[in-house]
Amino acid sequence: MTENSFHPTYLVSQWYTKFQGNPFFRGILIRDDKNDASHQSKERFHQLHQKEKLLTSDSLQEIQTLYGGLSKTEEAMIRLFGIPALAQNSFQKSIFLGKTINSEKVKEWLQIECKNEGKICMFVFLDKILSPWWIELTEGNIINAHSAVLPYARGMFAVENMASRGDIEEFKRVAGASVHYVDEGVDTGPIIRAVRIQNPFEFQSLSEVKAYSYKLAFDLLIQQASEMIENPQIQSVGIKAYPTLISPVFSRKDYTPQVEELAEKRFIEMKQDSVNAIKTKTTYKKIPTG
Known about the structure:
The structure is a single chain. 44% of the residues lie in helices and 11% in strands. The chain has 290 residues and is of the alpha/beta class.
């Protein structure tokens, strides 16, 4: 289950390529309305421009119109990975739940699905907190992709908010991705796996770091689903983080234009400090003694 914005198209394209025809794959749930007039146009655009990394000004304007604009991170994803081949509506098994996924109507739908299909495991990448009844009805089998290293950076724009603090070691600790079970907290469920970018300062911008973190999160989610399908007799347990390790939770409202500007500025400063530190180490010569 995911959003109908641009960056999740990387996830749904990979997901469909990996799991099409697999009997365990029941469909892609989308938090949007089915009657969006742009759906067919999005599908055509992705088919026409798939794998392109450098778009013309006209093509860039078109995709911005289709998705209501692109973030700096989404533009970085295009430069790094190219346009995905598919959009969210490209699949026969796409199910549009509407924009309000915690509504009573959606709850009734999920109750029927769980009753008809039995045990369901859901994999999610969302900008919306799920109501507790999602967890209850699926018996806790909801696995989320998070574009930062848990438990050190939780919530929305976590990597960016941490960058705004300007602490090199702190930023290096959180740059990466995680997958975890969803509980009633915000990114506090048992952590299944987490990976860290070894040197985030090799990237040219904070947007590129976040773009790569998104891709890592999608890769982890697909790896987790693959392992569960290939080894159905094994269940990932996940590990709860010690409360003292859990970071403050960031929300969308925390990432103001001022914080965004500061985060980008601090990233460049940290990047330069990191380069200077490496130069100092490589040019250091031990003074002979005796």
